[in-house]
From TrEMBL, chains A, B:
Fe cation binds at residues 96, 136. This is Transcriptional repressor. Gene3D superfamilies: 3.30.1490.190, Winged helix-like DNA-binding domain superfamily/Winged helix DNA-binding domain. GO terms for biological process: negative regulation of DNA-templated transcription; regulation of secondary metabolite biosynthetic process. Zn(2+) binds at residues 104, 107, 144, 147. Coiled coil: none annotated. PANTHER family: FERRIC UPTAKE REGULATION PROTEIN (PTHR33202:SF2), ZINC UPTAKE REGULATION PROTEIN (PTHR33202). GO terms for cellular component: cytosol. InterPro entries: FUR, Fur_C, WH-like_DNA-bd_sf, WH_DNA-bd_sf. It comes from the Bacteria. Its cofactor is Zn(2+); Mn(2+); Fe(2+).
Length: 166, 166
DNA sequence: CTCAGTGCAAACCGTTTGCAGAACG
DNA sequence: CGTTCTGCAAACGGTTTGCACTGAG
């Protein structure tokens, strides 16, 4: 069926993409898309499954994975791996479609920022190294403001100055 | 036993680290370390296991994983995830201990380059956002020179201009 | 009716862990 | 000699896949 009533404009965009490539626009696909587009965060599959449930739907994990794959292929959604052992998903339709990430090593929070500098880096590697950039990822790991204010300090592990061979 | 004969200077540095934290310097640990330090590439665990075999040793995967964990903790080795479904390891004792990566979407090759610009970005997020950077990762995905010369072009998939709601 | 989508459960695969036996110090 | 490591194999956990069933047109 898919009444399209209540689905976000972004989800309609996704529906357009599906029709474009000849795939059915199903209720499950619209629900998953809605959940992703309604959130401004970086969602894990579990987050998505939970929110789907909260909305009264019951969609299998396999379908969620398959739908996320379609969303990523449509380029409406980006897949991230912050080294947690699972992926996170974020739609690209916010005010800042291309942005970088600040990941707190203490609390795991993820903040976003824009870095025009990186585009300079991209044109430099193209000019100097002949590498043709398509997309990039800049993740900065460290301590967020809140954790610093809470007095957290990171204990440096490992060799202090590894760059010297005795 | 561990004769230390033939082990690279970097491996001796690793041995020093192990003793520092009160852990035994075993033959297996030295062999794994040697393999990693002898390579300038980005090695998968399979790569390492294969090279260990090629050197006539037979070390279980579990031990390789456990040793890599120690190497990473010592900060002599860095762990990377280029989205291939497994990790890669690279020692930090080359001429350019901190560098970024260019990953070819066609052939999967990984090249390195230095980006002083990123340090400017780090101090900017610190000054403007109060985020205290510890380390970063800048990966640029695209087409390497060789693949471009071979005539490869990436077929853009998905919606051309997703940033507009119908 | 037909065909793709869905859900379940099993498979997958890189990585981790438990444990008996071997090695280090 | 006690402690830690090693190797094997089983466990783990996120993700993918096979397949019978359901639903849309």
């Amino acid at each position: 069926m898919s009444s399209d009533i209540g689905v976000s404009p972004y989800t309609r965009l996704f529906g357009r993409y599906l029709r474009e490539i000849g795939l059915p626009v199903t209720q499950q696909r619209e629900t998953v898309a809605d959940v992703v587009f309604d959130s401004e965060g970086h969602l894990s599959v579990d987050d998505i499954e939970q929110e789907v449930r909260a909305r009264g739907a019951r969609i299998g994990k396999a379908t969620i994975y398959r739908t996320l794959d379609l969303l990523v292929r449509s380029r409406l959604v980006e897949e991230h791996d912050f080294g947690e052992g699972f992926k996170r998903y974020e739609h690209r339709l916010s005010r800042h479609p291309v942005h970088e990430h600040l990941i707190c090593l203490e609390c795991g929070s993820v903040a976003e920022f824009e870095s025009p500098e990186v585009f300079g880096v991209e044109s430099r590697v193209k000019a100097e190294l002949g590498f043709q950039p398509v997309r990039h990822r800049l993740d900065i790991y460290g301590l967020c403001k809140a954790c610093q204010d809470a007095g957290v300090t990171l204990t440096p592990e490992g060799l202090i100055c590894p760059i010297e061979t005795v």
